[in-house]
């Protein structure tokens, strides 16, 4: 099964104490698509400006990602400039230039509307609702959000949550959304808002998945060196949903496996700047690290 | 096999936004002993003042903990006063009164010297070395330390590390000891200092165990409510070493199981103030949570 993603395609400039890059491919839909494309066919809906490099269109195409849903508007592509400190934790945003993304109206091409796996990346909940109205009976809809939307569009976000199967956010967002510091209580509150499954990303501490069936605790891969944490969350979502769509059974075992695949992909992304590590990633590397992940928390 | 622990017995006053307690049983050796006593016989070497409540002596005795090694000095018992914020993270120390603990000279009673499992709790590395000279060929020696000793007694601490099998510290301590922010590199550096096994405690994010055999990632138990985090680390060590001594095989599978038992015990301790939850803990509760722990990270 293929996956439809609606989100941002951007040009990122990233600074860390160990180096940096300028105007490289970024945005939630880019990380998501490149990760998911390692498992299944991906259809992307996004907007870019007329300055968007052909090189990146070529990169998407080389991964078999369908680009019909990428609108090209006159103006500049969404740009983000971030700076990380020595802990490579939350980056300081030095500049966010929405440019053509400011007027993004996600139109789902006719032959994408029967998509069975859908990811609503972190965009305005009003746009997420607009996408939900255009797709026909997907098997699984997952979404992301952030503190900004939790604070500015609480009503619209609640409406989104009533209509998705799965929410993938980080722990600070989960605490803020539920207004509850204990993560297990926060998870219960969020599941009551609509989604059947909540995945809480905790960076180097792994991920927690909450559902009616209980809690699943996924480790993160202890890395020798993290170069650039940008896009780890969207890569996780891409690996997760790609694996779900490829497996095409929506059950407990598949969900857990997909969480591990999400973690595996994210662990690769942070090893280099931007999407670089994702672009040359081999299946045998993914499988080897998947096995290593399972070994991490196995008793025998 | 029995476990010998050398550390502090204290009277703690603890404040949290949700309540507090005054002059209750605390100290590394107390938490350790009560946790380890749920698995095996425990011998404790510590010092108390003449104000130490008989009630706590009675508590230790009721758990079968051998007290011959507890010195009673004239003066006051070690007291600590700490205050936690809403995140129940690192406490603010409002007062540390060493009292009789200032002149603690750990003398190991003659019939304790053949102890096979030894825990050197977080005390001056000079005293840890003094204990090491008194014990005869233990099977397994584990130790703890803290930032203060890493900074003030680096030479003595290095000497301790050359002579222990296992170091149990938290992640900030591991990073400081190794002078390395990436935990996997820090672990490698520390293993080169002497211990065969390093356990890094990460609070609500679980624990990592590093050895020649690789990395083991233990989850922590997602709790509904944390009341008081005091003593979680020493409880972990007690549960861990108690389980090791009870099992009495020093191998990879036993180490992993013991890490889970340590995490199980710590998850109980934080559910109430001080040692309270440890004192009425039942074996069936421990086994039930052990099973729940394994389930947390199991794929099937």
Largest interface: A-B, 33 and 33 residues
Number of helices of chain A: 11
- Overall average pLDDT of chain A: 96
Which CATH class of chain A?
Alpha Beta
Number of strands of chain A: 13
How many distinct folded domains of chain A?
Answer: 1
Describe the structure.
Two copies of one chain form a homodimer. Chain A has eleven helices and 13 strands. With 300 residues, chain A is of the alpha/beta class. Chain A has a single domain (3-296), classed as Ribokinase (UDP-N-acetylmuramoyl-L-alanine:D-glutamate ligase). In chain A, the strands form two sheets. In chain A, strands 5-4-1-8-9-10-11-12-13 form a nine-stranded mixed sheet, with helices on both faces. In chain A, helix 1 (28-36) packs parallel to helix 8 (232-247), helix 3 (125-134) runs parallel beside helix 5 (154-162) and helix 6 (171-178) crosses helix 7. The longest helix of chain A is centred in the C-terminal third of the chain and has 18 residues, at 252-269. The radius of gyration of chain A is 18 Å and the shape is globular. The model of chain A has no long low-confidence stretch (mean pLDDT 96). The A-B interface holds A 86-87, 181-185, 202, 204-206, 208, 214-219, 222-226, 253, 256-257, 260, 294-297, 299-300 and B 86-87, 181-185, 202, 204-206, 208, 214-219, 222-226, 253, 256-257, 260, 294-297, 299-300.
């Amino acid at each position: 099964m293929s996956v439809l993603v609606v989100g941002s395609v951007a040009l990122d400039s990233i600074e860390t104490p160990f180096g940096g890059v300028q105007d490289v491919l970024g945005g939630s839909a880019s990380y998501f698509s490149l990760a998911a494309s390692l498992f299944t066919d991906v259809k992307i809906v996004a907007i870019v400006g007329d300055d968007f490099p052909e090189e990146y269109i070529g990169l998407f195409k080389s991964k078999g990602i369908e680009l019909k849903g990428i609108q090209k508007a006159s103006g500049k592509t969404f740009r983000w400039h971030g700076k990380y400190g020595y802990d490579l934790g939350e980056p300081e945003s030095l500049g966010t230039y929405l440019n053509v993304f400011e007027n993004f109206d996600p139109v789902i091409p006719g032959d994408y509307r029967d998509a069975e796996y859908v990811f609503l990346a972190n965009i305005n909940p009003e746009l997420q609702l607009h996408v939900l109205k255009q797709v026909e009976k997907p098997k699984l809809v997952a979404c992301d959000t952030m503190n900004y939307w939790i604070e500015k569009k609480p009503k619209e976000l609640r409406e989104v949550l009533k209509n998705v199967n799965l929410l993938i956010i980080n722990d600070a967002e989960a605490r803020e959304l539920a207004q509850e510091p204990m993560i297990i209580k926060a998870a219960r509150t969020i599941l009551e808002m609509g989604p059947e499954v909540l995945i809480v990303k905790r960076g180097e501490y792994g991920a927690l998945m909450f559902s009616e069936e209980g809690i699943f605790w996924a480790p993160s891969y202890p890395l020798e060196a993290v170069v650039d944490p940008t896009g780890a969350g969207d890569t996780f979502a891409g690996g997760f949903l790609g694996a779900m769509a490829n497996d095409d059974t929506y059950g407990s075992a598949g969900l857990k496996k997909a969480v591990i695949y999400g973690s595996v992909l994210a662990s690769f992304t942070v090893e280099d700047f931007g999407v670089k590590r994702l672009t040359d990633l081999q299946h045998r590397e993914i499988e080897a690290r998947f096995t290593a992940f399972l070994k991490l928390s196995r008793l025998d």
